[in-house]
Amino acid sequence: MAGGQIMSLQALTELGTESAIVSGMDPSFMGLDFRRDFVHVTRSIPCHALPDIYLARFAAEDEGRTEEPTERRIREERDRGRVPKSQDLTNAIILLGAVIALYIAGGYMVNQCMQLFHKFLGAGAFNQTEFRAEDVKSFVGALFFEIFKICIPLFAISLFMGVVGNIVQVGAMFTVQPLFMPERLIPDFKRIIPGRRNLYMMLKTFVLVGIIGFAAYLVITDDFIPMLKSSGMDLRQATVLFAHSAFKLLIVCAIVLLALAIPDYFYERYEYLESLKMDVSEVKRERKEDYGDPLIRQRQRERYFQLSRQRNMLKEVPTADVVITNPTHYAVALLYDPTLVGGPKLIAKGQDSIAFEIRRIARENDIPIEENPEVARAIFRTVEVGREIPENLYRAVSLIFAKLDKFRTKVRA
Q1: 253 with 363, same domain?
Q2: Residue 381 belongs to domain with CATH number
C-alpha cells in the first residue's frame, strides 16, 4: 500500500512538472519551486483517494516474459536436468521407507545390536592384552562389517524409496549433461535476497519445525514416565522402550513431512513454469525454427491448395466436349449439354505447363482440340472454372461446336 502511494505521488509530481514545461511556464516562476509546492499539495490528499499500484504484480510483464513455456523449452530444460521437483517430497518418501524398514526388520536389527554388544563389549572381548596393527585392522573391519549387516535393510529400502520419490515426480530420466555445465558452480546471490521464494522457504521451515517439535513433545510427554523408570530395566527392555518411542516419533514426522511435501511439489512446479516463461520474440523465434517462416508456410499452403485445385480440374478434362487452344500457351476445356438450359461451361483451363497437360489428356481421351487463339485467350481471362461462358462469346463458341461431329450427333439425338 505504502509503496503504491509513493509511486503515485512521484508519478503525479513528474506529470505536473512536464505539464508546466510543455505549457511554456518556468517551474520555478515567481521564486517558487513548482515541484516542491506540487508535492506539498499532493501530500495533503487523503490516502484513500490515491490509486494503489502494486509493482510486484507487473514484475513478469516488465521483464517481458508473459508467454507460457513451449514444449520445446520444457524439453530442453529437462535434457539439462532441470525439472520441477520437491526435495521435501523425496525426503518424506525416504523417511516413510525407513519407517517401514524399521517396522519390518526392527527385531532383526535389535538382535544384531545385542550380539554386537556381547561380541565387542562382553567379558571375553578384553582377554587379549596386546594388540598389533593386524589385530586393530581385524577388529575395525569386523566391527564395520557387523554394523553394515545391521544397517543394510535400512539402507536398501531408503535407497529404493529415494529412487521411487524421484520417479514419481519427474518420471524415468537419466542425463549427464548437468556434469558439463560449469555455470552451475557460480554462486547465485539471488537466493539470499528477500523474495517470494525465500519467504516461502522460511515460512515452510518454521511450520515444519513447529509441527515436528510439537509432535515430539507429545510423544516424549506420553513416554516420559516409562523413560524415567528405564534405569531399573535391563538393556534389552530399555532398548525396546526407547526404540518404541523413536518409532512413534518417526511415524509422526513422516506423515507430517509427507502432508507438507504434497503442496510443496505443486508450488515448486508453479515456480518452475514461472521461471521458464518466455517473451513474444522467443516464442516467435522457436516457431520459426521449428516450423519455418510463417510467410513461407503460408505460400506453401497456398501452393498446395493451388496444386490440389489443378489436380481436381484435370480430372474433369476427360468429360469435356472440346478443348480450345492458343495453340501452345493457353488451353480451355468446355462442356455443353444441349438438353439443359444455359450455355457451355468451362471445366478446365490452364497456361503453359497446365495447358500442355490439358491437351495431353484430351488426346488420350479422343477429345477434339480446336485452335482459336482469340477465343481461348478471351475465355481464359474472363471465365472462372465451373462457370458458364458469357453471352458475348456464344457465337464464337457455337461456330466451334458446329464443326464437331460428336456435337452434331448429340444435337440430332
Answers
A1: no
A2: 3.40.1690.10
C-alpha cell at 397: 463458341
DSSP 172: S
Whether the Cβ atoms of residue 365 and residue 317 lie closer than 8 Å to each other: yes
Task: Verify that 253 and 118 share a domain, yes or no.
Answer: yes
Given a cut of 50, whether residue 194 has pLDDT beyond it is: yes
Tell me if 376 sits within 8 A of 328, measured CB to CB: no
378 and 253, same structural domain? no
Rounded Cα–Cα distance for residues 275 and 163 (Å): 26
Q: How confident is the model at residue 62 (pLDDT cuts 50, 70, 90)?
A: very low
Where are any strands of DSSP class E within 99-190? none
Residue 165 included in any domain: yes
Residue with cell 523449452: 73
Q: What is the mean pLDDT of the segment spanning 329-337?
A: 86
CA angle, corner 282, sides to 281 and 284, nearest 5? 65
Residue 362 neighbours by CB under 8 Å, 6+ apart: 317, 320, 323, 333, 368, 369
Q: Are residues 49 and 107 in the same domain?
A: no
- In a 10 Å sphere around its CB, with 0-12 CB exposed, 13-18 middle and 19+ buried, how is residue 22 labelled? exposed
d(CA 280, CA 181): 27
Residues in CB range of 261: below 8 A, 6 or more apart: 86, 88, 89, 91, 92
Within 10 angstroms of residue 187's Cβ, the number of other Cβ atoms is 7
Distance between alpha carbon 123 and the CA centroid of its chain, in Å? 66
203-233: per-residue pLDDT in tens?
A: 888 998 898 888 888 888 888 888 877 777 8
> Domain range holding 332?
313-412
Q: Is residue 60 part of a domain?
A: no
The least confident of 20-24, 130-134, 390-394 is 20-24
Q: Provide the pLDDT for residue 125.
A: 57
In a domain, 239, yes or no: yes
Question: pTM, whole model, 2 decimals?
Answer: 0.51
